[in-house]
Amino acid sequence: MFFIKEKDSYTYYKMRLKLSEIREEIFPLLKKKFERIEHLIKFREFDSRFDKEILMNIYNRAFLTSPDPFRPLTINELDDIDSTIFFIKLYGLDSGFISISIEESDQGEKIGLIPIMAVLPERQRRGLGSALALKAYDFLKNKDIEFVECEVGEDNLASFLFVKFIGFKVYGKEVIKFENE
Question: For the chain, how many structural domains are there in total?
Answer without folding.
Answer: 1
